[in-house]
From TrEMBL:
Name this protein carries in UniProt: Methylmalonyl-CoA epimerase
GO molecular function terms noted in the UniProt entry: metal ion binding; methylmalonyl-CoA epimerase activity
Classification via SUPFAM superfamilies: Glyoxalase/Bleomycin resistance protein/Dihydroxybiphenyl dioxygenase
Native species: Paucihalobacter ruber
Top-rank taxon: Bacteria
GO biological process, one term: L-methylmalonyl-CoA metabolic process
Signal peptide range in chain numbering: none
Record-annotated VOC domain positions: 3-131
Amino acid sequence: MLKIEHIGIAVKDIESSNALFAKLFGEPHYKTEAVESEGVKTSFFKVGPNKIELLEGTNENSPITKFIEKKGEGIHHIAFDVADINAEINRLKNEGFVVLNEIPKKGADNKLVVFLHPKGTNGVLVELCQEIKD
Ligand SMILES: CC[C@@H](C(=O)O)C(=O)SCCNC(=O)CCNC(=O)[C@H](O)C(C)(C)COP(=O)(O)OP(=O)(O)OC[C@H]1O[C@@H](n2cnc3c(N)ncnc32)[C@H](O)[C@@H]1OP(=O)(O)O
Ligand SMILES: [Co+2]
């Protein structure tokens, strides 16, 4: 893995959270994007070299809606940049991790993404990201 790509934070209301995190970071979010396949609206903040992704669920089956129902708002996942997502899937499967989607899917911010089940990673939902090159 190359570096932390972003930290995902589950929020109930992205509009009010955008205002809150803009106050915290001293900079507004730079981008919003809906990802319908995940049932989420997202917004992104830059903090130095790091990236924070806020996520609001848009339907009752969204992983974000279900997470907030069970655990409340807070850190939902940590995403790591990888150079070759298919090679990482194979490597991690061979190491015994549970890959939730073996075919990478289109995430936000021009990335292919894959998730590992949090039960196999000490309760942390891990996302792998590979930039989509045109
Ligand atoms: C915007 C796109 C993309 C990006 O480009 O960055 C994203 O970030 S999308 C983010 C949203 N999408 C996902 O989270 C997809 C991957 N997640 C899943 O497939 C599911 O959420 C899950 C992890 C498999 C859980 O689903 P499910 O089993 O249906 O839900 P439960 O509510 O029953 O939870 C089971 C179990 O897992 C615990 N859990 C759920 N989410 C998390 C989490 N984020 N971190 C840690 N633990 C989590 C949940 O608490 C349950 O535990 P127990 O109650 O102890 O069984
Ligand atoms: Co994410």
